[in-house]
Amino acid sequence: MDLSRFPRRFVIEERVPGSYSSTASGNNFMFNLMGVEAIDVVPGGSNMAQAMQKMADEVAAQGGKACIILGGGSNALGGLGYVACAQELQQQFFEQGVSIDRVVVGSGS
Question: How far apart are CA 52 and CA 55, in angstroms?
């Protein structure tokens, strides 16, 4: 499935006040590579579900349909994302004739 046609918007919690900078982390580099079109930075301790719903409502107001994935992929859809990732890796390794012993994933919310 080609996911490039789906807009990507993120809500990020800034746990240390004043620490967020769009030029200061590898995450932002990855966001750009993945085509993230909007990032809403909210203060630490914010109601993340409420902030994500607000963004989803904005998408709906523009005629789109949003899918909220909780931090850490901690719902059924997020879990399926990890499964799809593993399947994609497996397929790419097979197609390229690559044999692997381990996959290491740095993960956190």
Answer: 5
Alpha-carbon distances, residue 82 vs 12, 29, 78, 105 (angstroms): 20, 21, 7, 11
The three-state DSSP-derived secondary structure of the chain is: CCHHHCCEEEEEEECCCCCCCCCCCHHHHHHHHCCEEEEEEEECCCCHHHHHHHHHHHHHHCCCCCCCCCHHHCCHHHHHHHHHHHHHHHHHHHHHCCCCCCCCCCCCC
0.70 exceeded by pTM: no
**Domain-wise residue ranges, the chain:** 3-68, 71-103
> Which residue's structure tokens are 């399926």?
80
Arithmetic mean of pLDDT, 13-33: 84
Q: Which residues of 71-85 are buried (b: 16+ CB within 10 A; e: fewer)?
A: eebeeeeeeeeeeee
Per-residue pLDDT of 50-66, as tens digits, reads: 999 999 999 889 888 88
